[in-house]
Specification:
alpha/beta; Spore Coat Polysaccharide Biosynthesis Protein SpsA, Chain A; two-stranded antiparallel ribbon; 12 strands
Length: 249
């Protein structure tokens, strides 16, 4: 019998983990950053909708503050979300790394691809999400969306308090990228990274790098910026206003 008679393997299933346990101190006092509103809707809801907009994403796990899982679950229940996507809320840990690991622990075994997305990047376009997933499906163990830098970057050395910092190097800008999320992973690779790398790191891709595996870059998008400071809220509102104008509502 020809091998052609065998059924094609089902495409790998994709889940997204959104750590949303941080306080967001740079935005000032008030609600946790993920619960700040854009156009009257919490950033977290925008981020969840952005990931669920991808037809490849069938499960979104939101990692809530350790004592706020009930509040976040109520928040998700109060907003319209796609029916074809499942949503789960789990309590997080004391660090982002621990929160992602707790989100991973909540994934059913049938999910082979995992996205990790910052709740503070509420406006990532679906094309960026799909591009990350496709690169993992094609065999990359870890994928990050990224943009070239517009500014020249200087490395500086230490200085006494109040004194100007000395420039010690100017990296070649053409080789630098500003990394965004969602970052995409082969699930087994990301689980191994979390089991192996013990020091706290700024992103999950750098954990995979420490395993000696190659992380690849796909094009990011200017609207996938991180809402960190008050001015970012203004920019995000402007992006939403432009989208409403373009979409006719």
């Amino acid at each position: 019998m020809s091998d052609d008679s065998r059924p094609s393997p089902a495409p790998a299933r994709t889940a997204a983990v959104i750590p949303a346990a941080g306080r967001g101190v740079r935005l000032g006092p008030g609600a946790p950053k993920a619960l700040r509103t854009l156009n009257g809707t919490p950033m977290l809801i925008h981020a969840v909708r952005a990931l669920a907009a991808s037809r490849a994403v069938s499960l979104v796990v939101v990692v809530a503050p350790p004592d706020g899982a009930g509040e976040v679950k109520s928040l998700l229940d109060a907003h319209a979300l796609p029916d074809r996507t499942d949503f789960v809320v789990v309590p997080g840990g004391d660090s982002r790394q621990e929160s992602v690991r707790l989100g991973l622990d909540a994934l059913p075994p049938e999910y082979d691809i995992v996205l990790v997305h910052d709740a503070a990047r509420p406006l990532v376009p679906v094309d960026t999400v799909d591009g990350v997933i496709e690169a993992v499906r094609e065999g990359a163990p870890a994928v990050v969306p990224a943009l070239p830098l517009a500014d020249t970057v200087k490395e500086v050395g230490p200085a006494a308090p109040g004194e100007p910092e000395p420039v010690v190097a100017t990296p070649v800008r053409a080789r630098l990228r500003a990394v965004q999320t969602p970052q995409g992973f082969d699930r087994a690779t990301l689980v191994r990274a979390h089991e192996t790398v013990t020091e706290d790191v700024t992103d999950d891709a750098s954990m995979v790098e420490q395993l000696g595996l190659t992380v690849v870059v796909v094009p990011g998008h200017e609207e996938a910026f991180k809402v960190t400071r008050p001015l970012d809220l203004v920019l995000a509102e402007a992006v939403l206003a432009r989208r409403r104008l373009n979409d006719g509502f």
